[in-house]
Every structure is written in C-alpha cells, then in structure tokens.
Design goal:
heterodimer, A: alpha/beta, Rossmann fold, 4-stranded antiparallel β-sheet, about 40% helix, globular, B: about 250 residues, 11 helices, elongated, binds adenosine-5'-diphosphate, binds magnesium ion
C-alpha cells in the first residue's frame, strides 16, 4: 500500500511527560492526528491541554517523550515545525493598538509573504471583518477579536493549526461563527488540533476525540467509538442517544461539583 | 539568518513604533515630570541654590535628562510586560522568525521613545534660558552618552518586563532610578554633602555622567569623568544584557 507513506500523521505524540516543579502534569501522553482531520483534545480545566499545545508549538520542552508535527521533531527541527504551524492560544493574541488589518499585515510580513495587503483583505472578507478593518482592535467585541485571532493564524496557509480553547468565553453566536471557521479550515485540507472543555464542541466539530485525564489520554476515537465505550446498562436506561458528556463522566467518574451552565 | 534577524526586527520595530505614535501621551507623561522638576528647581529653589555656573538651568539640565531617561524606561518594562501577558509573544515565538528580534524591537523602540522625550525636555530648557556654545560634535557626544545610558537602562528594564507578575511590578523598578540623581551632583555640588552621602554621590554612575555632559555643554575639559561615565554605561549595559538574555531564554524555553 502506497498510502502508508502519504498517511504519515500530521501530528504524532509519544510518551510525552512534563512536570512544572513538583506538579506532574503529563504522564505519558500518546496520540496521532491524521492529515486534514479535526482532532479534539478534551479535558477539564488544568488537565494539561495548554501544556501539550505549547510543547507542540515549540514554546515549551517536554521532560520526556517525543512529538513531531508535519513530520518534523519539535525539538530537533523546531524551525521547520514553526514553518508548518500556526498557534491560536487560549487568550486572543492580537495587538490591541493596531487595527485589524494591520494585525494581519504584520503577521503576513513576519511570515515573509509577498502581497501582505491582499492577504489581509482576503482574510478580513472571509471572517466578516472588512467593515472593522481600519478600527483598532481595542474596540472589537470578544467574538470579533477571536475571529481576527484565528484569521491571523491562517495567514500563509499553515499545514497544521492549533486552537487552544477557541470558544471559551464567547457568546453562543460568536461560538457558532468560530465553529464555521474551523469546519471551513478542515474543508481546505488543514489539520486542526483543538482543545476544549466543552463536550458539545468536540462532538460538533471533531473527527476524532481524545480525553486527557490524570496526565494521560484515557480514551481516543471517533464519537461513535467513544459512545460504544459506555456500559450497555447505562445505554438501556438512557432515553436518547448517549452524549459525549455521558461518556466523559462515565470514564472519569462523576465530579463531586458540577459547574453550573 | 542574520538578514532575517534584521528584517524581522525592522518589521517588529515598525509595530512598536506605532504603539508609541498612537499613545503619544506616554511620551508626554515621560517628559512632564522632569519638566515640572526643572521648573520647580529653577524658579522656586533656584534663587536659594547658588551653583557655580552662572545659569542654574545650564547646571540642572544634565541631571534632568537623566531623570527623563529613568522615567522613560519604566514604560519599556510596561510595554514588554503587556506583550508577555497578552500572548502575542507566544504567537511570535511560534512563528518562523528570529526570536531575539522580538526583544530587540522593544529595545530599539525604547531608544526612539526616550530620544523624543529628551528632545522635548531640551526644547523646554531652551525656552527657560538654557544656552550652550557646544558645536555639532559636542552635541553628538551628548546624544551618544545619553543613548548609551538609555540602552543600558533599557536592558535593565527588560528584566522586570519579562519576569513581573503585575504591571506595577514591571515599571516600579524605575522609581529608585528616578531618585538616584537627587543624591548626585545633578542639583547641587557634592562637596556640600555630609561624608557618607557625599561618598555615595561621588561614586554612583549619575554623577560622572552628569559632570561629563555638563562639561561638554560648557565647553570645558571633560577630564576623566567621561571615561568613568562610559565605563558605568557599558558595565550596566553588559551585565543587564546578559541577565536579560538568560531570563529571556529561560522564559521561552
Ligand atoms: N508555567 C507553569 N508553572 C507552574 N504550573 C503550571 C504552569 N503552567 C501550567 N501549570 C499548571 O499545570 C496544570 C495544567 O495546566 P494547563 O496545561 O494550562 O491545563 P489546561 O490547559 O488543560 O487547563 C495546571 O494545574 C496549571 O496550574
Ligand atoms: Mg488551557
């Protein structure tokens, strides 16, 4: 099968281990993300999602294990990894004092692309920000800021995009806009690794889902595969299809306190 | 690699210069305190303080310029802190650009911002009667010393800018620097001071820098002051640069 060569995963993580001083956050994380797919890393607050994203985007070094992105080792080939990726961090990394357009032009120039202005205009259009293009970002709403943030990550069409909790703190309307942008990305063949605490989000967007808990990936698979993991008894009693939330809670054990929605 | 470094630094410098031109108030604020001090000292205390030179503004200006720089670099620490916190540093660091460019852009911006503030302060001093027969070369020498001092303090400001937990922490370190000129030859000659104070005043960097600049403005021989002043600037610069770079490497893994 010649598919094996081309099916080299976009992201491969093996035995990743990371501690912050005495806090052992990652204890042997393994997963792979196929090219052109949307992969959701699901975990509670503090599970280590951002830590994984930082290691993959060359911002942080793992204590042990290995990771490669677009076929490049994140430590040995960091420069090539940076050429291949784009990071949309947990908090919108936009320049408040610049306008939306200036932010995009800045990133395009830093990526050494020609025609930075045209690239900026195209992305402003695609993210419905054309009207706000010449306004300072400090005047943008949360949703606009997040859209700009994602648009900035798309400059130069990177092969792999990391989205760290892209919809946290957004209102439902803005969340749907971001979801549309993410689906659009995958449609263009970009690999998306997104993290979320939100089960609906993983369910709505991802081709494959991995649950990070206790420093490990405790399960991973398609939504259908995960639903099969539920004990049959529970399924019988359930009136409707089990949601990912049911799976999650069954696997990690019901938390004593549940966050109000 | 090096051409990429210069190219990336230029792009990022353009970005932070926009921050400066869009918040000119920070430059004004930087210049206001030293100008207020200059007015206070010249028009309120000036009569009582009998300095050796004929015009007290002439005597005062070098020290006021030092205070301008000391308060200016607190904004450098602050701007750096904001970038660290906002996540934009992480975006830059995950991009294929020379990492040290990110820091150098801030440093060069600090240099530009401080030179603008210094220019404003000198203009006010001229209005208040500051006069110097110094030629172009002498003025360039003054700009050179002040530029070097700004660079040294800027690298010093980078350290709290990178490590501070709060915005106040990032800029507060500059306050002691603002007061350093008061225990120096900036406002009164050191020989009026009591023993230990005088010993401190005569052996801290501000006195030699102030004396050197004052001598250049007055077209007098600068003597050894200029070498002591340069040694201080270069010494602070090297130590601060090394510590700042180590801190930066550690922060960015
Ligand atoms: N720089 C750091 N120093 C110390 N502890 C940290 C640091 N970054 C994260 N942590 C801790 O590591 C754990 C995992 O953090 P993180 O990866 O941000 O989780 P998540 O993104 O899943 O919420 C948390 O308990 C967090 O407090
Ligand atoms: Mg996180």
């Amino acid at each position: 099968m010649t598919a094996a060569a081309t099916a080299e995963p976009a992201i491969r993580v093996e035995g990743l281990d990371k501690s912050y001083k005495t806090l052992h956050v990652l204890r042997g994380v393994d997963f792979e993300v196929a090219r052109g797919s949307i992969f959701a890393l699901l975990g509670a607050n503090g599970a280590g999602k951002t830590t994984i994203i930082k290691i993959l985007s060359t911002l942080l070094r793992a204590d042990a294990g290995s990771a490669s992105v677009n076929g490049f080792d994140v430590v040995a080939r960091a420069a090539d990894v940076r050429e291949s990726i784009s990071l949309t961090g947990q908090f919108a990394a936009v320049d408040e004092i610049l306008t939306g357009r200036e932010n995009l032009v800045l990133v395009a120039r830093l990526r050494h692309l020609t025609g930075a202005g045209a690239i900026a205009d195209e992305l402003l259009e695609r993210f419905s920000l054309s009207d706000a293009a010449t306004r300072r970002v400090s005047e943008y709403s949360g949703g606009m800021r997040r859209r700009l943030d994602i648009a900035m990550s798309l400059v130069g069409d990177p092969r792999v995009i990391f989205l760290d909790e892209p919809t946290t703190g957004l209102d439902p309307q803005a969340r749907l806009e971001v979801w549309r942008a993410v689906r659009d990305l995958a449609g263009r063949g970009t690999t998306v690794l997104l993290t979320t605490q939100n089960l609906d989000e993983a369910e709505a967007l991802a081709d494959r889902i991995a649950i990070l808990h206790g420093g490990r990936i405790i399960v991973s698979g398609t939504l259908a595969e995960l639903k099969k993991l539920l004990p049959p008894a529970t399924v019988e009693y359930a009136e409707k299809q089990p949601t990912l939330e049911d799976v999650f809670l069954a696997l990690v054990g019901e938390e004593p306190r549940k966050e109000p929605r | 690699m090096t051409t990429q470094f210069f190219g990336d630094t230029a792009i990022l410098l353009g970005r932070s210069l926009r921050h400066i031109t869009r918040s000119l108030d920070t430059i004004i604020t930087t210049a206001v305190t030293p100008i207020a001090m200059m007015l206070l000292f010249v028009y309120v205390f000036g009569g009582a303080i009998s300095a050796s030179s004929d015009s007290y503004v002439n005597y005062l200006l070098p020290g006021i310029l030092i205070i301008t720089i000391a308060s200016g670099i607190s904004y450098t620490g602050f701007r750096l802190f904001l970038d660290m916190k906002s996540g934009i540093f992480e975006r830059f660091h995950s991009m294929p650009i020379a990492r040290s460019s990110v820091l150098w852009a801030h440093v060069l911006t600090s240099l530009v911002a401080n030179l603008i503030s210094l220019f404003v302060v000198v203009l006010v001093a001229l209005l208040m009667g500051f006069r110097s027969g110094a030629g172009v070369l002498a003025w360039l020498a003054v700009v050179g010393i002040l530029g070097l001092f700004t660079l040294a303090l800027t690298w010093l400001a980078v350290i709290p800018g990178l490590t501070a937990k709060t915005a106040d922490g990032a800029s507060a370190f500059a306050y002691p620097l603002v007061f350093l000129p008061f225990i120096s030859s900036a406002f009164v000659p050191t020989d009026t001071m009591p023993g230990p104070v005088r010993a401190f005043a005569e052996h801290q960097p501000v006195t030699s820098i102030v004396d050197a600049i004052r001598a250049i403005f007055a077209q007098q021989a600068v003597g050894t002051d200029i070498w002591i002043a340069l040694a201080w600037c270069v010494g602070i610069l090297v130590v601060a640069y090394v510590v700042a770079m180590i801190t930066y490497r550690r922060k960015t893994a």
